[in-house]
TrEMBL record:
Transmembrane segments: none annotated. This is Unannotated protein. InterPro entries: BCAA_transport, Leu-bd, Peripla_BP_I. Residues 37-352 form the Leucine-binding protein domain.
């Protein structure tokens, strides 16, 4: 079993950031006791490209906006379900009033019940396939759900690319993939698309090449890719010559995945909670500051991490104290908050209400679909 650990490099970065906040100006102030936020992200392991972006976005928001009102403590989920649960227990024992993450929905499904039992609210920064309602009322989603994102992508493929039939590739051993696959099935049915076959990828037992060849053999209009980020790039390369419209789940919404597959990713349709070309002033400012701070452009996971802090600061302004109980009440009363994701609000089911950004990959970049 893997063990919990704090990310030393990121912890040092955050220490410097918090020091900078204490000495400088910020757009938000608070005289209340600092809100202790446990940020759990996969900064090592297979999901590290996603979790590292998430953590970087969160750290930037704290340094720019919190003005000492947030005590951010970071934990590495290690892309492992049990490590995620261990990190959650450690965050709670460390006194976290609220927790962000874990990155993976499968890890969150195991870890979040500990927070629910302890009375600690959780904001799912990247948990697209998590069944929040099954865990409890303390679980809130910042990212759009896989259902929302896949539905937007499949609707675009049906209306703009005339897709009538598709083959679905998914991983039965992976929790995210099984949830994404169900989202594709529902979206296909809603848009009059027939899934003619399903190809199941089992790491170590089947090959990317054989699964991709089987999916392409019937010349389908589309190939639906409900896969985690680790094999995503390989599948983009293997299906590039198929001629089919390729639609990916949120596992493909990663700059690292697109870069690893190069030109083979061109034409991929994938929706996200955010796109770098999103036309709101909040987002444009975020892109500039993130790029300067990290010497790299942000992706959707970084934007979601940043937005989570914006949402928490809005709740903190309405809360009587920084206690978990008061933050939980305040989250239900934040109304509409201007964030990098756009105008953000929670519905009665703790789900966010903002439209998905439908994207098409071109030249290793996520371009907004027209």
């Amino acid at each position: 079993m893997r063990h919990f650990r704090v990310v030393p490099a990121l912890a040092l970065t955050l220490a410097v950031s918090v020091l900078g906040v204490a000495c400088g100006s910020s757009s938000a102030t608070s005289s209340k006791t600092p809100l202790i936020v446990g940020s759990i992200a996969a900064t090592s392991g297979s999901a590290a490209p996603l979790g590292s972006s998430q953590q970087s976005g969160t750290a930037l928001a704290v340094s720019e906006l919190a003005n000492g009102s947030i005590d951010l403590r970071t934990y590495d989920e290690m892309s492992d379900v049990q490590a995620g649960a261990t990190a959650m227990k450690k965050a709670i024992s460390d006194g976290a009033h609220v927790v962000l993450g874990p990155t993976l929905s499968s890890a969150a499904a195991v870890a979040d019940p500990f927070a629910q039992a302890a009375g600690v609210p959780v904001l799912g920064v990247t948990n697209a396939t998590l069944d929040m309602a099954a865990i409890g009322n303390l679980i809130w989603r910042v990212s759009l759900s896989e259902n929302a994102m896949v539905s937007a992508s499949v609707k675009y493929a049906a209306s703009k690319k005339s897709v009538k039939n598709a083959v679905l590739i998914w991983e039965p051993a992976d929790g995210y993939s099984t949830g994404s696959a169900e989202s594709f099935r529902s979206a296909a049915k809603a848009n009059g698309i027939t899934i003619t076959s399903e190809q199941k990828y089992v790491e170590g037992a089947t090959s990317v090449g054989s699964i991709s060849a089987a999916a392409s053999s019937g010349s389908p209009d589309a190939i639906f890719l409900a896969l985690r980020s680790a094999p995503a790039g390989d599948f983009l390369v293997a299906t590039a010559a198929s001629g089919a419209v390729r639609v990916g789940g949120n596992g493909f919404n990663s700059a690292a995945v697109v870069k690893s597959s190069g030109a083979a990713a061109d034409g991929l349709i994938v929706s996200g909670s955010w796109n770098i070309n999103t036309s709101n002033a909040n987002s444009k400012k975020f892109v500039d500051s993130y790029t300067k701070a990290n010497n790299a452009v942000p992706d959707a996971f970084a934007a979601q991490g940043y937005a989570a802090i914006q949402v928490l600061l809005a709740a903190l302004k309405k809360a009587k104290t920084a206690s978990s109980a008061d933050i939980q009440v305040a989250l239900s009363k934040i109304g509409t908050v201007e964030t990098v994701l756009g105008p953000f609000a929670f519905d009665a089911q703790n789900e966010p209400s903002y439209p998905a950004a439908v994207q098409i990959v071109q030249g290793e970049a996520f371009t907004l679909a027209s």
